[in-house]
C-alpha cells in the first residue's frame, strides 16, 4: 500500500533500460496500481464527504494530512506508471528506428515457446496459457504498429536521405563484404549480384547497408 | 533572406554559395548535436541542400551507363560527396528528432509560439507522436484514473509534468566575431569574448549570440 507497488514498477523500468530485449509487461502490477489509485480517490471522497465542500485544512489538521498523503500517493503512482510506460515505449521506438520488426519477432518468440510448451501439454499436467505469454501488452502492440506507420510517413518525406541509415560517418564508397546467409539476388547500378553464402564482394555501401543491418552480410576490414 | 545571410554575403561574397551552404550545414549539424535544445529550423538552407542532393542523384543515375573511365571516376567522386552530404543531413535531422521526442510536450507548446522553430514535417511528426503516446497511456491505465488525474500537462503542487531541456548545460564554443562582455546569469562571472577565443560556458548565457547573431559557433 501507499506506493510500494509503484516502487516495484520503477525498479522494473530501471532494469529495462539496461536490457537489450523487452521483459514481459507487468500487467498485474499495473492493474493493482490503478486499483490503488481508485481506492485512494474513494478514500479522499469519503474523507471529504462530511464537510460538504467547505473543508478548512487549519481547522482539522489530521484530516488535512490524510488527504495530502492520499493525494501525493496518487500522483506518485501516476508518475511511476507514466515512467514505466514511457521507458518501454522509448525502447520500442528505438527498435522501430533500428529497423527491427518488433511484432514479427514477438510472433516468432511465441511460436517457439508454444512448440516448447506444446509437449508437456500432451502429457496432460501443465496448463495451456504458458505459450500465450507475450512480452508486449496489447496496447503496446498497437502502439508499435502505429508508431511504425508514423515513422514511415516521416521518413517518406526524406526519401533521398534514408533517415534510418547508418549514423557512422561514411569513409568509403565501396566496401568489402562477406555473405553470411543466402540473400538472393540484388540489383545495383553495376548489374545484378547474386549473394550466396560465404562469397565475398566489393560493393557500394549504400546498396548493402540494409542487408548488413539485417545480418545477411558482414563488413570486412 | 534574413540579416545573417546578408552579413554572410558581405563578408564571404567571394566564396560560391555551394561551399557556404556546406559550411553552414556543418555548423548547424555540430550546433544541433551539442546544444541542449532544438535550434530554429534553417528552412532556406535545407531547401537548397535538398534540391542539390536530388540533382546530384539524378546526375549520377544519368551517367551510370557511361563506361568512359574518366567519367566513371568523376562519378565516384560525386557519389562519395553525395554520401557525405546525406550523412550530414541524416545526422542533423536525427539529432533534432531525438530532442523533439525527449521533450515532446515542451516543444509542442513552444512550437505554437515560435512557428519557425520546427520544420512543418517535424511539427506533424511531433503532434502525431504525442497523440499516439497519450492514447497509449490512456488505454493502458490512465482511463481508469479519476478524471482530475488524467491530464498529462498538470502543474499542480508546484511541479510541472512537462519537462524541458536544461539550458544551463555546459557547451564548448568558438567566437567568430567580437562579442564583448558576456555575463553568466545568477553568478558574477564576466567574460570578454574576442574573435578566435574558445570558451566553455553555460549554453543559456551565449544562446542569443549563437542563434540570433551567429557571432559564436558551437564545437
Automatic annotation (TrEMBL), chain A:
Residues 172-219 form the DNA replication complex GINS protein PSF1 C-terminal domain. It holds the Pfam family PSF1_C. It is found in: Nucleus. It comes from the Eukaryota. InterPro entries: GINS_A (IPR021151), GINS_bundle-like_dom_sf (IPR036224), GINS_Psf1 (IPR005339), PSF1_C (IPR056783). Residues 108-138 are annotated as: Disordered. Residues 47-158 form the GINS subunit domain. One of its GO terms (cellular component) is nuclear replication fork. Its main location: nucleus. Keywords: DNA replication, Nucleus. GO terms for biological process: DNA strand elongation involved in mitotic DNA replication; double-strand break repair via break-induced replication; mitotic DNA replication initiation. Component of the GINS complex. PANTHER family: DNA REPLICATION COMPLEX GINS PROTEIN PSF1 (PTHR12914:SF2), PARTNER OF SLD5 (PTHR12914). The GINS complex plays an essential role in the initiation of DNA replication. Belongs to the GINS1/PSF1 family. This is DNA replication complex GINS protein PSF1. The lineage of its organism: Eukaryota, Fungi, Dikarya, Ascomycota, Pezizomycotina.
From TrEMBL, chain B:
Residues 165-219 form the DNA replication complex GINS protein SLD5 C-terminal domain. One of its GO terms (biological process) is DNA-templated DNA replication. GO terms for cellular component: CMG complex; GINS complex; nuclear replication fork. Pfam families: Sld5, SLD5_C. It comes from Coniosporium apollinis (strain CBS 100218). It comes from the Eukaryota. Belongs to the GINS4/SLD5 family. Keywords: DNA replication, Nucleus. CDD domains: GINS_A_Sld5 (cd11711), GINS_B_Sld5 (cd21692). The keyword Nucleus applies. InterPro entries: GINS_A, GINS_bundle-like_dom_sf, GINS_Sld5, SLD5_C, Sld5_GINS_A. The GINS complex plays an essential role in the initiation of DNA replication. This is DNA replication complex GINS protein SLD5. It is found in: Nucleus.
Amino acid at each position: 500500500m501507499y506506493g510500494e507497488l509503484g516502487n516495484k514498477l520503477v525498479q522494473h523500468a530501471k532494469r529495462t533500460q539496461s536490457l537489450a530485449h523487452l521483459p514481459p509487461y507487468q500487467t498485474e502490477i499495473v492493474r493493482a496500481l490503478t486499483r490503488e489509485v481508485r481506492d485512494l480517490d474513494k478514500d479522499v471522497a469519503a474523507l471529504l464527504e462530511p464537510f460538504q465542500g467547505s473543508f478548512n485544512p487549519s481547522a482539522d489538521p489530521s484530516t488535512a494530512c490524510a488527504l495530502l498523503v492520499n493525494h501525493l500517493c496518487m500522483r506518485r503512482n501516476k508518475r511511476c506508471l507514466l515512467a514505466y510506460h514511457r521507458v518501454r515505449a522509448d525502447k520500442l521506438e528505438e527498435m522501430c528506428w533500428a529497423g527491427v520488426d518488433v511484432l514479427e519477432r514477438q510472433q516468432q518468440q511465441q511460436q517457439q515457446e508454444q512448440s516448447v510448451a506444446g509437449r508437456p501439454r500432451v502429457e496432460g499436467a501443465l496448463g495451456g496459457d504458458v505459450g500465450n505469454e507475450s512480452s508486449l501488452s496489447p496496447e503496446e502492440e498497437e502502439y508499435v504498429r502505429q508508431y511504425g506507420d508514423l515513422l514511415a510517413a516521416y521518413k517518406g518525406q526524406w526519401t533521398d536521405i534514408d533517415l534510418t541509415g547508418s549514423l557512422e560517418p561514411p569513409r568509403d564508397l565501396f566496401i568489402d563484404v562477406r555473405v553470411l546467409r543466402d540473400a538472393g539476388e540484388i540489383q545495383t547500378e553495376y548489374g545484378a549480384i547474386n549473394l550466396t553464402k560465404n562469397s565475398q564482394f566489393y560493393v557500394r555501401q549504400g546498396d548493402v547497408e540494409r542487408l548488413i543491418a539485417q545480418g545477411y552480410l558482414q563488413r570486412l576490414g | 533572406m534574413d540579416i545573417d545571410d546578408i552579413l554572410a554575403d558581405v563578408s564571404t561574397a567571394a566564396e560560391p554559395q555551394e561551399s557556404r551552404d556546406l559550411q553552414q550545414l556543418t555548423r548547424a549539424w555540430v550546433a544541433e548535436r551539442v546544444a541542449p535544445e532544438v535550434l530554429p529550423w534553417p528552412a532556406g538552407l535545407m531547401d537548397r541542400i535538398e534540391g542539390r542532393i536530388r540533382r546530384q542523384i539524378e546526375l549520377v543515375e544519368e551517367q551510370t551507363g557511361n563506361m568512359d573511365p574518366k567519367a566513371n571516376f568523376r562519378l565516384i567522386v560525386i557519389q562519395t560527396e553525395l554520401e557525405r552530404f546525406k550523412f550530414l543531413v541524416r545526422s542533423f535531422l536525427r539529432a533534432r528528432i531525438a530532442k523533439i521526442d525527449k521533450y515532446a510536450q515542451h516543444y509542442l507548446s513552444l512550437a505554437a509560439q515560435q512557428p519557425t522553430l520546427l520544420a512543418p514535417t517535424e511539427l506533424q511528426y511531433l503532434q502525431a507522436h504525442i497523440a499516439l503516446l497519450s492514447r497509449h497511456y490512456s488505454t493502458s491505465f490512465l482511463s481508469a484514473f479519476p478524471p482530475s488525474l488524467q491530464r498529462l500537462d498538470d502543474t499542480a503542487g508546484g511541479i510541472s509534468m512537462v519537462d524541458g531541456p536544461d539550458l544551463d548545460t555546459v557547451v564548448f564554443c568558438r567566437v567568430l566575431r567580437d562579442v564583448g562582455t558576456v555575463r553568466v546569469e545568477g553568478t558574477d562571472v564576466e567574460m570578454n569574448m574576442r574573435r578566435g577565443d574558445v570558451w566553455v560556458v553555460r549554453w543559456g548565457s551565449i544562446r542569443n549570440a549563437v542563434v540570433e547573431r551567429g557571432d559564436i559557433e558551437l564545437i
